[in-house]
Structure formats: C-alpha cells, structure tokens
Design brief:
The complex is a heterodimer of chains A (about 250) and B (about 450). Chain A has about 250 residues and is of the alpha/beta class. Chain A contains nine helices and seven strands, in the order βαβαβαβααβαβαβαα. Chain A has a seven-stranded parallel sheet with strand order 3-2-1-4-5-6-7, with helices on both faces. Chain B is of the alpha+beta class and about 450 residues long. Classes of the chains: A alpha/beta (about 250), B alpha+beta (about 450). The complex binds flavin-adenine dinucleotide and NADP nicotinamide-adenine-dinucleotide phosphate. The site of flavin-adenine dinucleotide has 32 residues of chain B, from strand 3, helix 3 and strand 10. Chain A: It comes from uncultured Nocardioidaceae bacterium.
Amino acid sequence: MINALGVPQRLLLLGATSDIAQAVARRYAADQPLAVVLAARPGPRRSEAAAALAALGCPVEEVDFEATDTAAHAEVVRTAAAGGDIDVALVAFGVLPDAEEAWNDVGTAVAAAQVNYVGAVSVGVALAAQLRRQGHGVVVALSSVAGERPRRSNFVYGSTKAGFDAFYTGLGEALREHGGRVLVVRPGFVRSKMTTGMEAAPLSVTPEEVAEAVVNGVANGKEQLWVPGPMRAVMSGLRHVPRPVFRRLPI
Amino acid sequence: MSAPSTAGRPLAGWGRTAPTVALVATVSAADDVVRAVASAPERGILARGLGRSYGDAAQNAGGLVLDMTRLDRIHAIDAEARLVDVDAGVSLDVLMRALLPLRLWVPVLPGTSQVTIGGAVAADVHGKNHHVAGSFGNHVRSLDLATADGAVRTLAPDDPATSALFWATVGGMGLTGIVLRVTLAVQPVETSYFVVDTERAANLDELMERLVEGDHRYPYSVAWFDALTTGHRLGRAVLTRGRSATRDDLEALAPELRRTALALRRPSRGTVPRGMPPRLLNRLTARAFNELWFRVSPAAARRDVQDVTQFFHPLDVVQDWNRLYGPRGLCQYQFAVPDGAEEQFRRCVRVIAESGHVSALNVLKRFGPRNPAPLSFPTAGWTLAVDIPVSAGLDGLLRRLDAMVLDAGGRVYLAKDSRLPATTLAAMYPRLDEFRQCRAEVDPTGRFASDLSRRLAL
Ligand SMILES: Cc1cc2nc3c(=O)[nH]c(=O)nc-3n(C[C@H](O)[C@H](O)[C@H](O)COP(=O)(O)OP(=O)(O)OC[C@H]3O[C@@H](n4cnc5c(N)ncnc54)[C@H](O)[C@@H]3O)c2cc1C
Ligand SMILES: NC(=O)c1ccc[n+]([C@@H]2O[C@H](COP(=O)([O-])OP(=O)(O)OC[C@H]3O[C@@H](n4cnc5c(N)ncnc54)[C@H](OP(=O)(O)O)[C@@H]3O)[C@@H](O)[C@H]2O)c1
C-alpha cells in the first residue's frame, strides 16, 4: 500500500533497465527499502540493475518483459502482482530512433511506434485491470515534451509520445473512480543512455532530477508534471507560436 | 442489506490521506453480515464504523466494506446489573444519551463520541480515565463475532474456550471477524457534569511531575501541551483533571445546573466547508492558537463544573474539522512509552517541537496497566498524540520518532497510524505473532482484510 505520506511498498518498473527507472527506484530506496519488480529484457543490464537495488536492501524480483510482445503483457503484470499489490508502476521503456532514418525507413518508424506507442497502450490496459482489481495504485507514465508539439527534427518519436501521452492522460480519467491514478511525466532532454552522444538541449536534466520530481509528484497526488518545472511554461508558449515562426526555431 | 454498490466508493480515514476504492454495502441485521461474510470477494471483507480512525484501518481497497452504522439497536439496558446489550453499530454518542437518564455512564470515552461500539472494541480505545479504568475491552463482558466460517460465536473474557479469540478481537482492528453485538458493563453517575481542576504547567518537567504526583486523585486526567515552543518553556501545558460531579457537587459549585443535572447539551458551531484552502493551518496560525490556548487557561489552579462536551469532546462541536488541514490531509502520531523511559519521552517532545512541523492538538497523558489483548495499544507509562498536516519532510521526522519510541520500548497506536513501516510495527508489538496465529486459526484463508493489514502485514 502507499502510505499517508505517499511512500509505496512495492514498485514495478516496466523497462527496468532505463536510467530514469533506475534513478526512481534508487530515490525511493534511499528513504527506506521497498520491494521492486524489474520487468525488462533479460541480460547483463537487468542483472546489474537487480544487484544494485538488492545492495540497497530492496527485495528484488525479475520478470521477462518485451514491449512488442503484447500478448504476454497481462501475464507480466499478473506475475508482478503475485507477490503483493503494485503501489507504483513506472512505464519507462522506449526507443529514440535516428530521426532521419525514422521517417525514411518503414522498419525503423514502425518499430518505434510499436515499442513506444503500441507496447505502452498494451501495458497500460494490463495495468489498468490490475489497479481496478486492487482499488488503488499509481501508474507513472514517462511521456516527453517531444509529444506536445511535433517538430521537424524529431517528429516520428514525437508522434509516438503524443499518442502515448493522450492514452495515459485518458487512462487517468478512466481510473479515477476505481481508485487508480496516473501521473504523466513530460521530461525535456534527459542525459541518459538514450541520449548519449547527442548534444544536450537547453534545460537538460539528469535521471536523478526526473526521479525527484516523480517521487514528489506521486506523494502530492499530481496528475501531470514537467521536468524541469519551467519546461511547462516553455511548452505552453511553444504551443502558441505560429507555424512559420516555429519552423525556424532551432529546436 | 443494501446491495453493494457496483461502482465502488473512495474511502479514507479521518486524516483524509491515502483514499482507496472499495465496494460498500450497508448492513442492518446480523444475518446481512453473515451472508456478506460468506460471499466475501477475493480481496476480502471488512467492517467500518464511523470512520474515525485516522489512517487506513477502515479501508479495504478492491474488496468489500460493510457500513455497520445501521446495525444500531440498543437491545437492553439493565440498570440494576449495570449492563447494556447493544449492536456494534451504535455510536458512543447515542449510547451516552440513552444511559444518562438512567444515571449510567459509558465507562471509556475517547476524544470524540462519534465512534461505534464495534470501532471501540476493534481499536480497544482508551479515554482520559485509562489510568484507573483501563481501555474499552476491559469493560466488555461478552461479544458476538461473525467469523470467516460463517458462524456467529459468542466470546467472553472469562470463558477459557473463547477468551483467546475475545482478546484477539479486542484491539484486533476488525481482522478476526465482524463484531455484531456487545454486552458492556457501564458505570453509575449522579449527573452529566464534571468537576474539573484546570492548571498550567510552565514546562515539560513540571507537567510530568504533576501528573505522576496527582493523577491518582482524579479518575480523569489529560494535558494539552504546546508542541511549538522550544527552550526552557518546552512542553508548557494545561492540565485538566476531574471527576464525575455528584448532586452535592452541583449544589455546592453550580446550583443553577441542578435542574438539568442529567442533560446533555451539544451545541453545533457549524461545519468546515469542503475544499478548504491548503494549509489554513500553518506555523503562524498554529503558534497563535497555542499561545491563546495557554493564555486563556488560568495561571492559578481553578476548579469549575464542565459539561460533557467541554470536558470530553470540545472538537465534536465543529463538524468535519479535519478539512482544516488542507488537501494532503493530516497525520496523527500517537505513541506510548513505559514508565522509566521519561528521558526518551522528553527527547521525543523536543524533537517534535524543534522539527518545524506544526501540531496544534497535542495531548499527553499517563496510562495505567495494560489488558491481555495482544494488539492493545495502552501500556503503563506515558502517551503523547500530535496532529501534523502532511508536508514534505514529515516522513523523515516520523521515522526518526519511530526509532526513538522503539528504543524506549514503546509503540505507536494502530487506530491513528497511517504510515508505519511493517518491520517497525512488528518490533513495537512483540505479541504480534500470537495475534497472527489466532487470526490464522479463525480465518485461515484471509477473508478479513484491510489496507492497514496489507500495509503492515498483520
Ligand atoms: C477527534 C478524535 C479523537 C479521538 N480520540 C481518541 C481517544 O482519545 N482515544 C482513543 O483510543 N481513540 C481516539 N480516537 C480514535 C477512535 O476512537 C478510533 O479510531 C475508533 O476505532 C473509531 O471508531 P469508528 O467507529 O469510527 O471505527 P472506524 O474508524 O470506522 O474503524 C476502525 C477499526 O474498527 C474496525 N471496526 C469497526 N466496526 C467494527 C465491527 N463492528 N466489527 C469489527 N471491527 C470493526 C474497522 O475495521 C477498523 O479496523 C479519536 C479519533 C478522533 C477522530
Ligand atoms: N532521455 C530523454 O531525454 C528522455 C526525455 C523524455 C522522455 N524520455 C522517456 O523516458 C523513458 C526512459 O528513458 P531513459 O532516458 O531512461 O532511456 P533508457 O535508459 O534508454 O531506457 C529505455 C529503456 O527502454 C527499454 N526498451 C527499449 N526497447 C524495449 C523493448 N522492445 N522491450 C522492452 N524494453 C525495451 C530499454 O531496455 P534494454 O535494456 O532491454 O535495451 C531501455 O533500458 C523512455 O520512454 C523515454 O522515451 C526520455
């Protein structure tokens, strides 16, 4: 159960090897150890993540999870919930394809859509069933500012996140009366393994900063947040910039 | 029985933190309860009284919750034997009103009378008279419990065949079954008034000294203390101690009340509206409140006659005052430490006062000996309760207090708790395993469950 101060007892990470997911788990564990279910593709990255959390005193479970294998998602969630209610589930998997390749190559575009959107919708439906069953719980969905207004430089990824964002925003509304909550998180540029080698955009943040915002957002009952906070105003402004101007912005 | 709502309803405790959704059915007869237990869903079933526990004790996320407040008959009052036979959904307020004309009195009254008999048993509630009267369970002569096997069992503390389950049910937070009906021993009174001595203590040491030195002279004793002032005035307090007024007392002290000697007045000063602005209660207003409370109390000891509301339930005058604490709700932290742990107790008070967190309603009192219930909270020694609005940093403060309380051999009160880690709870209640075993015997498949039981692995 999540307690009165917003502290969960059991955390499910979908895409558990994500740098942001790891930072969130570490941030919770720093206050007091909690049970963590690592749902991710098997491999050294998952094993290392499990060992790191176990070293912090967390009981850890590993579950195989492939975002494109949608038929298996309900079972993944059931397995994760077998050991206790899922208090917080973090939807953290995602791919950031090369932007030019993505709009020129069918395979790349479809793969991104399948992981970032189709996989996320499938997981969301499975999580919703579990939250309704338990009558409580929070889904934290890692969206992106890239989904708020598509840009020439990154619109395939942006479109997957736009769909993702709309789905999880709606899911939050649908789950309200059943006791479930959804927190949609829209980071800007995060310096994680997803963005290694890329030049950091303005207002870039670390996975730890995203984690801090997530933990506070869950405790405060937030439904959406931007990281860093000022990104909200920036995006709100950008939404209203006329298209000819927007086109020429160096973003 | 009303058919359980199919949509589910959000339920929270008095602190308004961590609401969860459950199906709720209102029961009005014992048969309704037995039927509901038999058809308990996968996530289990739980009784709920008036929802005055602060945390998640009366919630069962995803399961079924029985609203017991319509199971509310007073079956019999035997004035001669001083015994009452009442349904579990009767509130102490209603019972008190029924008893007074017969010159009888509820033996244990918590700080609000808006609690049910079932809730009073399940939390084994205590009142200002714990040091002489013990807790609620001490006054229960027998109770009917609907258990997981579909049976209704009559349990009594002096019956060797049922006493173990009886005591597990007292303080058992609704997890052994559903209390249907209770036979309670009540006390004689002559009037509905109290002779109350009010005095100030300049600091914590003086307060504790006076409580140790004088409590035996009063059946009722409690102190409100200032939890914001630090330094040499740390723990300055107002003590109110008293006893039930006799007719002679009224004659001597308040002759104008003689004609209404058994009346029960409860003025209502209105309701706090929904959606109060966040943090109306902040450090500034709380400081003003603390200062005022201390100032309006007489510097020199004063004796006067007070009615039930003034003496027992000043908060019941304002409905829904818990909304004053803003959208994140409030956390009540009540702990007890044994005699001999005075030094640790003082340190806890200092940590709270110096924390920067605001608590306005701070109660300190001495407890008498404990009863045989494995999860009953009161133990001989000291208890303290603070009400703190939820804000950043509170988790750290309370975990620090947990460690100090544990170190002093103390414990936290489950009826107030909403955030304790399971391992800490287990360390605080050394007889938890005994309770778990009793529960495993009477409810092997875990039909009875609550958010509290899930959070604390009870
Ligand atoms: C302002 C205020 C002051 C208070 N002061 C005190 C005090 O001085 N001393 C003290 O001890 N407590 C105090 N309390 C706490 C309160 O007395 C307890 O939490 C009590 O249990 C509340 O009763 P309820 O009917 O509201 O029960 P709920 O809060 O609805 O339920 C509490 C527990 O009782 C169980 N329960 C309820 N009915 C039944 C039943 N029929 N069968 C089995 N289990 C049942 C529930 O499952 C739950 O676990 C105070 C609370 C408030 C709000
Ligand atoms: N970094 C940013 O700037 C940024 C900004 C806004 C939003 N986000 C979003 O935040 C989330 C976390 O990103 P991050 O920065 O932590 O990046 P990350 O470290 O690269 O994490 C992404 C994770 O997704 C997993 N994944 C990819 N494809 C998968 C598949 N088919 N099945 C299962 N798992 C798969 C990867 O797991 P493997 O270990 O198995 O490869 C990887 O660990 C993503 O949704 C991302 O879109 C990131």
